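On to my pick:
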Amino acid sequence: MAARFEELAWRETPIGEISLRRRRDPSLDVDVYEVKLDDEFLMSSLFPVAEIELARLGLAPLTADGLDVVVGGLGLGYTARTALEDPRVRSLLVVEAIEDVIDWHRRDLLPFAAGLAADPRTRFVRADFFAAVASGAGLDPEAPGRRFHAVLLDVDHSPRQVLHPSHAAFYTADGLRRLAALLHPDGVFALWSNDPPDSTFQRVLTEVFPTSVAHVVRFPNPLQRREAANTVYVARH
C-alpha cells in the first residue's frame, strides 16, 4: 500500500522553496498531487479544470492547422497535456524557469501528465518566461524572434498577485506589446488567473489586442463543498 503522504521532490529556487508532494485524501479516496512554493499552495490535481480550459479556450479561436504553441509555466502539466490533445498542434514549446519542474515530467512523477515529455512535438526550454519576452529575443532560444499561433500562460496567481516583482512589468501595455510581437497575425494570448475578471487589466489588454474576452471558469471544490471559479483571459492579435 502506498504511503498516505510522500514528498516527491524539493528544491530551493530564486523565488523560494518549491516542492511536489503526493498525499492520499481518505474522504475522496484519491491521490492528490500538490505543488507548494514555501508554505503557499500553487496548484493541486484536485482543481485542474481551469488549467485544462486555458488550453481549450486559448486554442478555440484559431482556425488553421499546423499550430505552433507556447505554454508558459509547466506546473502539473494539465495545460500542456491538453494542448497536445488538439490534433492541429504541430509543436509545443514549454517555457519553465525551474529545471526540477521539467524533471518531474521527464521522470513521469505525474501519472495524469503521462506522455507529455515523450511526445515528439514537445520541447522544454528552461528559461524565465517574463525575462525572455522582455529581452526582445523571444521565447525560443534556437530561433530568436520566432512567432507562434498561441501563447498560453499560467505562472502568477493573477496580474495583480505575481510570484516575483520582476513579473509585474509584463502585465502593462508595453509588456504585452512585446508578447504580441511574438504572435502570428490573428494569434492568441491566453492567461490563467486565480482572481475574478479584473477590469483594469482588461483595459490594458484592449490597448494591445483588438479583441479580448474574460472567461469565468467554474468548478466544484470538494474540500470546501462549494463552487469555485478562476478566470481565463483570451486576447487575439
About this structure: The chain has six helices and eleven strands. Residues 137 and 229 are 35 Å apart (CA to CA).
